[in-house]
C-alpha cells in the first residue's frame, strides 16, 4: 500500500519538485526527481508578473458564490430525495439531462443567452452558468436515503418548520457527503477558467487560473513556470482538503439531535 | 407547515437556474444540430440554413466519427468497471486502517485528481516513452520487450485508460468513504454476534448498504467515460492513426478547430442519446434491486 | 451544533459577497464606452507595458486585454457570435481566412493612403499577401515569423556539410550518413504536428495552391513529390517516428542534429543547451525547385463594428512604424513585418536573426481559404497513415484528394 501510494502520488511530487528546477532540467531524460540546482526563479517570476490582488479577489468571490450554489444544490438534492410530489421524476430527468452533453457544445448558446441578459462582462455572468451542478444535486439525493424518514416525521410532529428541519437536522446528518461537496465545489470554483475568460472583456474580471495561462508563450511551453503555478494553485486545495476530510469520516453525530 | 409547495421551495431555485443556464442552451444546441451553422452563420444568422437530418446522415458515413464511437465504447467497457472497482477497494481498505495513517493515504490517493494536467502529461509521457520511459526500462530488467505504450492504436487506448483510472480514483474514493460512514454500526455489531467473518460482512453488509453510492458513482463514471476527452487531448491528440480519438474529442475538433458547429452539435446529440440509453439501463437495473 | 452555525455564517458571508459582486456590475462595463479609450485584444502579454509610450504621445487610452493563445479562438468565436468585440484585435495569419469569411474585420483598403506607415510596400510581400482577403484589406502586418533550418555545425561538418545542406539532395545525403552513425541516431526532427509543414515541402517542389483550382491542386506532381520526400525520412529512419527524447536534449547530445523551426528557438537553444554554444547555426531552408518557407506571424485588425476607427488606425499606424517595430523586437523578440526596421543594428548585426530576415524574403503565404487548417490536418493524417500505418502513397493520396474535394465543396 505504501508503494502504491508513492506511485500514485509520483506525478504530484514531481510537479512540486520540478517547480524548483531550472527549465533545462525539467524535461531532461532520464528525469531527475530532486532538483540538482534548486531555484526559486519561477516563483519570483510568478509573483512579479501576476496581478495577484485583482485575480485573487475575483477568485475568492467566485469561491464564495459557489458555496451559495452548493447550498442551493443541497436543498434541491434534499427536495428530490425526501419528498414525493407531482412531476418529480420529470424534473429530475431534466436535471440529469444537463450532465449528458459535453460542456463545449453549449458554450456558445450559453454565451449568447448571457449576452441577451446583458450579463457579459459582469461577475454575475461569470458565476451564474456554473452555480448549479446536476452532479451535486444527484449526489445529495442519493445520500438522502441514509437519513431515516422517521427522524423528519418526528421533527414535523414536534412542530418544526421545514427549513428548520433542513438546516438543523438534514445538514448535520449529511456532514460526510457535504464535506465531499465542499471540497469538490471549492476546487471547481478556485480553478475557474473558461467563463471568466469568455465573459470578461476586461482583465479586471480575470481569475488566478486565467492569469497563470497568460504567462505562457505561444511557441514555447515554460514547464518550470507552469509547475510553479500549479503548485501554488494546489496549496489552498490541499488545505481545504485536509480540513474537510475529517468530516467525511466523522460520520453521524446523532447525539446532537433532540 | 408542510404543504404541497414545500418540495418546490427546495428544488425551485436550483432547478430554475439549471433550466436557464444549462437546459435552454441544450435546446438551442439541439436546434443548431439541424443546421449548417459554421463561423459565417454564427456571425450572420441569416446565412444559416436548416438542413434537417443531413448532419446526422453524414456522421454515420464519417469514418473518423465511427472510429471514435468504437474507441469510446472500448474505453467505457474496460474503464468503467476498473474505475469503480478500484476506487471502491481503495475506500474500503482506507476505512480499515488506523486513523492518522488513513488520513495521510486519503491525501495521497486524492492528489492525482488535483495535479495539473500538463504535469500529468509530462510525467506520464515520460513513463510511457517507448525508448527512454521508466515502464520499458523496468520491463527490460525482466527481459520483456519494449511495449509501444502510446505508439500503437490498441496499446495506446489501454495506456490512456490506465492513466484515466489513476486520475479519477480520488473523487470516487471520497464518495465511497462518505458512504461507508453512513452504514449504521449496529449492523456490524449484530454480525459480530452471529460470528460472521470479514468477507461475509463485506458481501452481506457493506456492499448492499452502499448500493446507493455505488449507483451514483457508476452512473457518473459512465457518463464521464462516455465523454472521455482530456486524456487523449493532452497525451495523443487522438492518434496514433485515430486510435485514441473519442467522441468528445471529435466534437471538439469539428466544433472548435474547424468551426463546423452544426456538425459538431449533431455529433454531440448522438453522444447524448448513447448516454441517455446507458443511464436508463442503469436506472432500470436499480429498480429491480430491492436493497434500495 | 457548532458546525452548523459555522456553516450558516460562512453561507451568510458568501451571500453578502454574492450580492456585492452583482451590484458591482455597473463599474465593470467595457472600457469602450469612454470616448478617448480604444480596447485592444492581444495574445502578447508584453503589449501591456509597451503602449504607455503611445498613450503619452497620442493622448489616447489604450486598454489592452491579454488573452491566452490556447483560448483566443474560443474568445474570438463568442465575439463574432455576439458582435461584441474590441476596437483593435491581433489575428494570427492562419486564422485570417476563416474569420474574414465571417466578416469579422473592417475593410481597411480605403484608409491605407491616409497614414504614413500602412502602405503595402512597407512590408514583406507575403505578409501583405495574408492581409488581402477577397479584395479586402483585413489588417496590417504586425510581426512576422517563418521556419528555417537549425543544425549542428560540428556534426554536419563531419559528414561534409559544415554550412548545412543547401538542397534537399544534400539533405538526404547528409541525413543518410547521420542516421548511419548508429542506434538511436537520427538526422533531423521534422515537425509532425504542424499543418504548415507539408505545404512548405510542396512549395519547395514548385507546387502552389491556386484558390480557383480547389482539390485539383493536390493532383499535381509537386505535391506528390513532397509527400514522397517526407516519407523517405521515415522509411529510412532518418527521422524518428515515435516520441523519443526531449527536443533540446536530442539536439545538444547530437542524436538529432537538425530541426526545422522558428526564430524563437534561437533563444531557447541558448537557454536550454548552453553547452553547445558555437556548435550550431541557422541556415535558409534547403531548396529543391526553390527554398520557400511559410509566412507566419500576426496582424492588427479592426473589429467590424468598432466606433473608433480613426483612433484605432492611428494606433495601428504607430505600431507599424519602423521605430516602434524595432522597439517591439527588442521588447518581445518578435520579428518586424516592416522592411526598413530590419536595417536597424539590433537586427542587422545579429547573424542568426538576419538569416530569418533573409528567409522571410523567400516565403509563401498559406492558402488563404477558410478550410486551410482542416486541409492541413488531413494531410498530416494521410502522412501518418503512410509513414506509420504503411499505407501506399498513391492510394493515400487518392483518398486525401477525395477528402479535400469534400471539404472544399461543403
From TrEMBL, chain A:
CDD domains, sorted: TM_PBP2
Similarity section: Belongs to the binding-protein-dependent transport system permease family.
Protein name as catalogued: Carbohydrate ABC transporter permease
Assigned keywords, A-Z: Cell membrane, Membrane, Transmembrane, Transmembrane helix, Transport
Compartment(s) where it occurs, according to its Swiss-Prot or TrEMBL record: Cell membrane
Organism: Gracilibacillus caseinilyticus
Listed SUPFAM superfamilies: MetI-like
Residues that span the membrane, as ranges: 55-78, 90-114, 126-144, 165-187, 193-215, 227-249
PROSITE patterns for the chain: ABC_TM1
Residue span(s) of domain ABC transmembrane type-1: 55-244
UniProtKB/TrEMBL annotation, chain B:
Organism: Gracilibacillus caseinilyticus
TM spans (from-to): 7-32, 73-95, 107-127, 158-180, 207-228, 261-283
Domain called ABC transmembrane type-1: residue spans: 69-282
Record-linked InterPro entries: ABC_transporter_permease (IPR051393), MetI-like (IPR000515), MetI-like_sf (IPR035906)
Alphabetized CDD domains for the sequence: TM_PBP2 (cd06261)
Membrane association type: Multi-pass membrane protein
UniProt-recorded name of the protein: Sugar ABC transporter permease
Coiled-coil intervals, chain numbering: none
Pfam families associated with the record: BPD_transp_1
Compartments (UniProt record): Cell membrane
Keywords: Cell membrane, Membrane, Transmembrane, Transmembrane helix, Transport
Family indicated by similarity: Belongs to the binding-protein-dependent transport system permease family.
UniProt keyword Cell membrane present: yes
PROSITE patterns, alphabetized: ABC_TM1 (PS50928)
Automatic annotation (TrEMBL), chain C:
Database matches in InterPro entries: SBP
Signal sequence range: 1-21
Record keywords: Signal, Transport
Pfam families linked: SBP_bac_1 (PF01547)
Family classification: Belongs to the bacterial solute-binding protein 1 family.
Name of the protein in question: Extracellular solute-binding protein
Amino acid at each position: 500500500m505504501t508503494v502504491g501510494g508513492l506511485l500514485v502520488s509520483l506525478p504530484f511530487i514531481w510537479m512540486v519538485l520540478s517547480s524548483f528546477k531550472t527549465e533545462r532540467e525539467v524535461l531532461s531524460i532520464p528525469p531527475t526527481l530532486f532538483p540538482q540546482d534548486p531555484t526559486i526563479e519561477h516563483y519570483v517570476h510568478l509573483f512579479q508578473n501576476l496581478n495577484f490582488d485583482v485575480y485573487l479577489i475575483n477568485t475568492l468571490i467566485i469561491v464564495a458564490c459557489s458555496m451559495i450554489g452548493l447550498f442551493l444544490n443541497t436543498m434541491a438534492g434534499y427536495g428530490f430525495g425526501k419528498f414525493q410530489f407531482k412531476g418529480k421524476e420529470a424534473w429530475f430527468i431534466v436535471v440529469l439531462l444537463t450532465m449528458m452533453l459535453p460542456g463545449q457544445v453549449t458554450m456558445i448558446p450559453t454565451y449568447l443567452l448571457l449576452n441577451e441578459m446583458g450579463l457579459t462582462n459582469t461577475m454575475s455572468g461569470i458565476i451564474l452558468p456554473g452555480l448549479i451542478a446536476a452532479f451535486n444535486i444527484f449526489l445529495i439525493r442519493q445520500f438522502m436515503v441514509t437519513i431515516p424518514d422517521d427522524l423528519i416525521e418526528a421533527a414535523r410532529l414536534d412542530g418544526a418548520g421545514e427549513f428548520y428541519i433542513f438546516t438543523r437536522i438534514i445538514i448535520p446528518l449529511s456532514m460526510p457527503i457535504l464535506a465531499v461537496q465542499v471540497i469538490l465545489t471549492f476546487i471547481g470554483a478556485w480553478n475557474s477558467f473558461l467563463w471568466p475568460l469568455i465573459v470578461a472583456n476586461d482583465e479586471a474580471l480575470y481569475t488566478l487560473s486565467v492569469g497563470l495561462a497568460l504567462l505562457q508563450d505561444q511557441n514555447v511551453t515554460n514547464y518550470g513556470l507552469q509547475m510553479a503555478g500549479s503548485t501554488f494553485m494546489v496549496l489552498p486545495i490541499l488545505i481545504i482538503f485536509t480540513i474537510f476530510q475529517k468530516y467525511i469520516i466523522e460520520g453521524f453525530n446523532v447525539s446532537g439531535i433532540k | 407547515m408542510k404543504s404541497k409547495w414545500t418540495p418546490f421551495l427546495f428544488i425551485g431555485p436550483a432547478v430554475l437556474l439549471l433550466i436557464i443556464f444549462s437546459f435552454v442552451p441544450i435546446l438551442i444546441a439541439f436546434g443548431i444540430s439541424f443546421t449548417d451553422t459554421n463561423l459565417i452563420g454564427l456571425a450572420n444568422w441569416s446565412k444559416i440554413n436548416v438542413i434537417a437530418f443531413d448532419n446526422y446522415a453524414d456522421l454515420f458515413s464519417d469514418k473518423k466519427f465511427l472510429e471514435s464511437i468504437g474507441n469510446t465504447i472500448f474505453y467505457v467497457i474496460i474503464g468503467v468497471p476498473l474505475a469503480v472497482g478500484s476506487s471502491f477497494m481503495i475506500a474500503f481498505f482506507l476505512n480499515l486502517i488506523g486513523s492518522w495513517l488513513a488520513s495521510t493515504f486519503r491525501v495521497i490517493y486524492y492528489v492525482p485528481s488535483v495535479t495539473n494536467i500538463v504535469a500529468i502529461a509530462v510525467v506520464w509521457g515520460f513513463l510511457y516513452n517507448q525508448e527512454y520511459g521508466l515502464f520499458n526500462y523496468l520491463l527490460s530488467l525482466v527481459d520483456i520487450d519494449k511495449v509501444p505504450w502510446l505508439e500503437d492504436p490498441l496499446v495506446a487506448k489501454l495506456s490512456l485508460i490506465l492513466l484515466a483510472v489513476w486520475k479519477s480514483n480520488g473523487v470516487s474514493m471520497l464518495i465511497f468513504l462518505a458512504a461507508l460512514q453512513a452504514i449504521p454500526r449496529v449492523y456490524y455489531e449484530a454480525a459480530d454476534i452471529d460470528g460472521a467473518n470479514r468477507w461475509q460482512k463485506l458481501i452481506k453488509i457493506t456492499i448492499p448498504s452502499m448500493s446507493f453510492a455505488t449507483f451514483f458513482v457508476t452512473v457518473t463514471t459512465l457518463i464521464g467515460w462516455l465523454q472521455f476527452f482530456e486524456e487523449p487531448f493532452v497525451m495523443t491528440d487522438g492518434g496514433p492513426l485515430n486510435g485514441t480519438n473519442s467522441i468528445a474529442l471529435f466534437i471538439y475538433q469539428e466544433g472548435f478547430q474547424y468551426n463546423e458547429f452544426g456538425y459538431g452539435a449533431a455529433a454531440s446529440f448522438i453522444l447524448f442519446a448513447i448516454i441517455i440509453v446507458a443511464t436508463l439501463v442503469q436506472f432500470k437495473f436499480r429498480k429491480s434491486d430491492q436493497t434500495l | 451544533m457548532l458546525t452548523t452555525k459555522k456553516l450558516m455564517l460562512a453561507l451568510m458571508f458568501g451571500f453578502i459577497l454574492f450580492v456585492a459582486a452583482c451590484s458591482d456590475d455597473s463599474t465593470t462595463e467595457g472600457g469602450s464606452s469612454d470616448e478617448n479609450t480604444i480596447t485592444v485584444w492581444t495574445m502578447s502579454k508584453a503589449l501591456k507595458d509597451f503602449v504607455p509610450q503611445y498613450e503619452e504621445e497620442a493622448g489616447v487610452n489604450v486598454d489592452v486585454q491579454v488573452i491566452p493563445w490556447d483560448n483566443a479562438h474560443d474568445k474570438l468565436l463568442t465575439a463574432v457570435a455576439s458582435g461584441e468585440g474590441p476596437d483593435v484585435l491581433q489575428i494570427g495569419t492562419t486564422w485570417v481566412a476563416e474569420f474574414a469569411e465571417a466578416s469579422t474585420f473592417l475593410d481597411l483598403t480605403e484608409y491605407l493612403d491616409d497614414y504614413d506607415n500602412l502602405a503595402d510596400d512597407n512590408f514583406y510581400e507575403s505578409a501583405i499577401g495574408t492581409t488581402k482577403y477577397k479584395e479586402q484589406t483585413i489588417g496590417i502586418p504586425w510581426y512576422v515569423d517563418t521556419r528555417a533550418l537549425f543544425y549542428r555545425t560540428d556534426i554536419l561538418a563531419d559528414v561534409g556539410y559544415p554550412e548545412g545542406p543547401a538542397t534537399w539532395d544534400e539533405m538526404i545525403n547528409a541525413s543518410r550518413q547521420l542516421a548511419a552513425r548508429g542506434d538511436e541516431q537520427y538526422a533531423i526532427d521534422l515537425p509532425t504536428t504542424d499543418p504548415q509543414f507539408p505545404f512548405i515541402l510542396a512549395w519547395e517542389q514548385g507546387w502552389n495552391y491556386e484558390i480557383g483550382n480547389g482539390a485539383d491542386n493536390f493532383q499535381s506532381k509537386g505535391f506528390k513529390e513532397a509527400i514522397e520526400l517526407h516519407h523517405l525520412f521515415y522509411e529510412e529512419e532518418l527521422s524518428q517516428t515515435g516520441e523519443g527524447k526531449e527536443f533540446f536534449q536530442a539536439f545538444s547530445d547530437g542524436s538529432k542534429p537538425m530541426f526545422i523551426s522558428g526564430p524563437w528557438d534561437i533563444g531557447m537553444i541558448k537557454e536550454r543547451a548552453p553547452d553547445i554554444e558555437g556548435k550550431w547555426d541557422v541556415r535558409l531552408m534547403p531548396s529543391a525547385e526553390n527554398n520557400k518557407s511559410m509566412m507566419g506571424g500576426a496582424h492588427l485588425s479592426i473589429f467590424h463594428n468598432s466606433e473608433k476607427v480613426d483612433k484605432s488606425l492611428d494606433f495601428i499606424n504607430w505600431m507599424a512604424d519602423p521605430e516602434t517595430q524595432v522597439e517591439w523586437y527588442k521588447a518581445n523578440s518578435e520579428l518586424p513585418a516592416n522592411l526598413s526596421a530590419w536595417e536597424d543594428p539590433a537586427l542587422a548585426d545579429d547573424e542568426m536573426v538576419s538569416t530569418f530576415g533573409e528567409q522571410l524574403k523567400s516565403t509563401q503565404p498559406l492558402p488563404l481559404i477558410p478550410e486551410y487548417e482542416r486541409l492541413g490536418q488531413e494531410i498530416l493524417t494521410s502522412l501518418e497513415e503512410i509513414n506509420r500505418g504503411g499505407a501506399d502513397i498513391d492510394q493515400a493520396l487518392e483518398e486525401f484528394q477525395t477528402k479535400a474535394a469534400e471539404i472544399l465543396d461543403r
